[in-house]
Amino acid sequence: MVFAARRTEAGFTLIELLTVIAIIGILAALIFPTVGKVRETAQRTVDANNLREIVKAAQIYAADNNDRLPDPTALAAQISGGNGAHLFAGVLAQRGILTDPAFYFAKNDPVFNGVYPTAIIEPGTRNVLSTDFASRDLSFEFVGGLRMSDGPSTPVAFTRGLLATGFWDATKGVYRETGGHIAFLGGNVQFYPNTSETGSQLTLTNGRKGPSLLQAIPVNARVYGTSSATLGTVGGVQGQTPQ
């Protein structure tokens, strides 16, 4: 009697399986942080573009308002339902220049809930801020009271979280303490890990370099922010004379 040879099925041993799992784990540890960093960088690019468009919108507004950019203090009589930074955005929407509320929120902002307000201005009135928009923390802070004749290195808007020291707040900063964008009257937007180190300081109103954004704006200008802001306030923080 002739017996057929039994085929031996190839398979993984336990050691081989554990080795494969370990390799997958190592690859995942290498790939996932890279993917996360790429996404974060991409979102920062979106945020920078949004800031650039906000500055452009403010300049368009200025062209019809004696070269004055939006000033929340002066706008309180024109738009109700909010104040400060919300009014800066409100007048741009009221004039039909920038009406999309998504421009004012960064997706990776820790205080952003992931849902955009449906409008900035109540559609039926055109002079009242949307309740949903006016109750939100914006991802940016704004400088009110500027004129087009101010220098091109004058800050107009910046990522929320900048401190008076030139560093970014680890809790309230949109990108935590890693930095933020500053948009200037000249139209450029730049990412700053901080404004304190030599080479990354701002141009102050006296022409010198320094870390203080408040000293980089005219003394009659003010920085406005929402409740999570670190430099601006609802009522505005006045610019300072460089020392």
Q: What's a concise summary of this model?
A:
This protein has helices at 14-63, 72-75, 85-94, 131-134, and strands at residues 140-144, 155-159, 180-184, 189-192, 202-203, 209-210, 222-224, 237-238. It is an alpha+beta fold.
Give a topology summary:
Blueprint: H1 14-63, H2 72-75, H3 85-94, H4 131-134, E1 140-144, E2 155-159, E3 180-184, E4 189-192, E5 202-203, E6 209-210, E7 222-224, E8 237-238
Antiparallel strand pairs: 1-2, 1-7, 2-3, 3-4, 5-6, 7-8
Q: How many distinct beta strands?
A: 8
User: What is the radius of gyration computed over CA atoms, rounded to a whole number of angstroms?
Assistant: 25 Å
Order of helices and strands: HHHHEEEEEEEE
Mean pLDDT: 91
Task: Label the structural class.
Answer: alpha+beta
Oligomer type? single chain
Strand % is 5-15%
> What is the terminal-to-terminal distance?
107 Å
Which geometry do the CA atoms define? globular
- Give the low-pLDDT segments: 3-8
Q: Work out the helix count.
A: 4
Largest sheet: 6 strands, antiparallel
Question: Strands of the biggest beta sheet: in what spatial order?
Answer: 4-3-2-1-7-8
Helix content: 25-40%
Tally of distinct domains: 1
